[in-house]
């Protein structure tokens, strides 16, 4: 019996050792850190650290860490950085870990570019760390006159993500962007969570997050308060999931505008849920130009939304023309079709008399629009009654609808 027990013990230890060796062989390698201080960065808030940041990224990107991650570390301190672009593809998974503060230049001669901090052509990018990017937008906002000046120069977006796949952005803060805070272009499977984007309500064009030509984007558990849209979904946005976002101040969360380009545009598959809007200019908005090449918005669900003193809580505007330079229908013979849009379980207060305002085209009416359990009260002490308006809208309503009388 003793020999049998000894044999079984030997066999067990042999099997355990084999599994342990296999586990060790297959486990990830430890991360390799590339601290920007090691490449000459100086955290004094004044020295231009663009080259040091680029050197750290380039070396990390080229380093083959097999199954591990390469981490570009920005430690505590304030680092001034001019325009910098972090390019892939890289040989290992990349992490940009921001612990300190990155500050944009305040010199007007360095303002005019489309990107301040950019990430491009990277698979598996992670940007995190709890730090802050400070766009110092107060120095640049006087130059943002594009609404009235067609010859205006471009001001930079604080952080751009172009051609990023399987990425994550979390636990960051962006303040006072010169233009928008984050822009996503041609990204796929990007998860953004626990971020805070802030700029004064009067700051021009400081959108929180702009999404274009991107699929499978998730945004959650974030606070966005800006001078423009908290989130804007432009053409090519598909399968967008937005949840637990606090928006305010700002212009709300928008789809569009669509229909101002010379090609077919679309937004499809948007889910926006469990979000809160506080004192925003708009709440949930779909905006399209009055005439365009054939384009569409479809499969949109807004649900579980709280409105607190919002000026235009629910709005579809197929006549959106902010600068009065839109084409006429007879010139383009097309338009933007809006169908399968649901507003569901929305409550709170409106500071405008028209809380539900769905204005669609006579030539291309909105199709299959649903209003389900809407309960909005007037935040004003005025004796006027709050109303809803629906023009050229085909749809239905269910449950309690306040204000009533629209569908």
TrEMBL record:
MF (Gene Ontology): polygalacturonase activity
Predominant location category: secreted
Coiled-coil zones: none
InterPro entries in the cross-refs: Glyco_hydro_28 (IPR000743), PbH1 (IPR006626), Pectin_lyas_fold (IPR012334), Pectin_lyase_fold/virulence (IPR011050)
Residues making up the signal peptide according to the UniProt record: 1-20
GO biological process: carbohydrate metabolic process; cell wall organization
Family from the record: Belongs to the glycosyl hydrolase 28 family.
Entry's localization field: Secreted, Cell wall
Sorted UniProt keywords: Cell wall, Cell wall biogenesis/degradation, Glycosidase, Hydrolase, Secreted, Signal
Enzyme active site: 251
Pfam families, per database record: Glyco_hydro_28
Superkingdom of source: Eukaryota
Protein name, per record: Exopolygalacturonase
SMART domains reported in the protein's UniProt record: PbH1
SUPFAM superfamilies: Pectin lyase-like
């Amino acid at each position: 019996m003793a020999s049998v027990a000894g044999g079984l013990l030997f066999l067990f230890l042999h099997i355990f050792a084999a599994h342990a060796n296999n586990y060790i062989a297959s486990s990830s390698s430890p991360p390799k850190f590339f601290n920007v201080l090691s490449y000459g960065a100086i955290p004094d808030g004044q020295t231009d650290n663009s080259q040091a940041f680029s050197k750290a990224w380039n070396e990390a990107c080229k380093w083959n860490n097999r199954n591990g991650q390469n981490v570009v570390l920005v430690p505590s301190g304030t680092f001034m950085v001019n325009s910098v672009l972090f390019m892939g593809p890289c040989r290992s998974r990349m992490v940009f870990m921001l612990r300190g503060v990155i500050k944009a230049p305040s010199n007007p001669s360095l303002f005019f570019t489309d990107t301040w901090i950019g990430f491009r052509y990277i698979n598996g990018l992670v940007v995190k760390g709890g730090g802050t990017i400070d766009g110092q937008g107060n120095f640049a906002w006087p130059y943002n006159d594009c609404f009235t000046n067609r010859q205006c120069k471009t001001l930079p977006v604080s952080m751009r993500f172009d051609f990023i796949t399987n990425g994550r952005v979390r636990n960051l803060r962006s303040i006072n962007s010169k233009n928008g805070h984050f822009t996503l272009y041609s990204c796929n499977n990007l998860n953004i969570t626990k971020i805070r984007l802030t700029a004064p309500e009067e700051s021009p064009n400081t959108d929180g997050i702009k999404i274009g030509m991107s699929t499978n984007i998730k945004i959650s558990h974030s606070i966005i308060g800006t001078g423009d849209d908290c989130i804007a979904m432009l053409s090519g946005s598909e399968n967008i999931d937005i949840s637990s976002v606090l928006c305010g101040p700002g212009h709300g969360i928008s789809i569009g505008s669509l229909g101002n380009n010379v090609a077919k545009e679309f937004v499809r598959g948007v889910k926006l849920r469990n979000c809160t809007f506080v004192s925003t200019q708009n709440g949930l908005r779909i905006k399209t130009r009055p005439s365009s090449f054939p384009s569409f918005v479809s499969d949109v669900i807004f649900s579980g939304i709280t409105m607190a003193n919002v000026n235009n809580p629910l709005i579809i505007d197929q006549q959106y023309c902010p600068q009065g330079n839109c084409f006429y229908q007879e010139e383009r013979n097309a338009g933007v079709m809006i169908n399968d849009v649901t507003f569901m379980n929305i409550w709170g207060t409106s500071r405008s008399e028209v809380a539900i305002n769905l204005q669609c085209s006579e030539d291309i009416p909105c199709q299959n629009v649903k209003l389900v359990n809407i309960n909005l009260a007037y935040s004003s002490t005025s004796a006027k009654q709050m109303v809803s308006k629906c023009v050229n809208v085909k749809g239905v309503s269910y449950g309690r609808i306040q204000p009533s009388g629209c569908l």
